[in-house]
Amino acid sequence: MALYSVYEPDEPAADLVERADSLVFVKDGFSWPALFVAPLWLIYHRMWLVLVLYLGGFVVLDLLLSMSNVGTAISDWAGFGYMIFFALEANGLRRYSLERKGYQLVRMVIGGNRERAEAAFFSDWLPDQRRAGVVSIRASQPRPGKLALRERPRRR
After folding, report:
1. Which string of DSSP letters, residue by residue, matches 1-41?
2. Residue 39 domain boundaries
3. Where is this region: Disordered (predicted)?
4. CA 47 to CA 34: how far, in whole Å?
5. What is the C-alpha separation between 102 and 96, in angstroms, rounded?
6. Is residue 38 part of a domain?
7. Most C-beta atoms within 10 A of its C-beta, which of 17, 47, 63, 74?
8. How many separate domains does the chain show?
9. Which pLDDT does position 54 carry in this prediction?
10. Residue 15 domain-assigned?
11. What pLDDT is attached to residue 135?
12. Torsions phi, psi for 37 (to 5 deg)
């Protein structure tokens, strides 16, 4: 079971569907994508400051290790350790970045995977929104690009 933090923008949308789409689920714990493709993971999540600090950390680590005349094996292991440490802290840094952007923690939810965590969250969250008076505006409007069906006359 994984623990997820659910964040909502500071100014949520009035439409319930748009509001649900703007929610961000952040898993607690180790991030495999952040281990293997950290710069791409940071760009995907638009964590620019953390990207600069991550790359700067590699530069500083390389400078320190090159000045100390250690072997390449030790340098490689130190770089790998830096990557593992980042992967352990990546989701925490993502939560910090969301809070810096004005997102508010809505609640924590537990699920076997993200889909189950989302299902558990929305089963509690949607009734709360209805009780609070948040109603979807788009629910009664047809989707763009879809034609309304007309009744066909009966053939005799």
Report:
1. -EEEEEEE-SS--SSHHHHHHT-EEEE-S--HHHHHSHHHH
2. 2-134
3. 137-156
4. 12
5. 10
6. yes
7. 47
8. 1
9. 97
10. yes
11. 59
12. -135, 60
Answer yes or no: are the C-beta atoms of 104 and 12 closer than 8 Å.
no
Q: Is residue 154 part of a domain?
A: no
Tokens 């281990």: give the residue. Answer: 35
Neighbours of 110 (CB within 10 A): 13
| CA-wise closest residue to 139 among 52, 14, 9, 34 | 14
Report field, pTM of the whole predicted structure over 0.85: no
Residue 90 CA, chain-centre distance (Å), reads 11
Q: Which residues pair with 107 in a beta bridge?
A: 6
Inside any domain, residue 142: no
Distances (CA, A) of 37 to 23, 42, 45, 48, 153: 24, 9, 12, 15, 59
Question: Could you give the CA distance from residue 2 to residue 136 in angstroms, rounded to a whole number?
Answer: 30
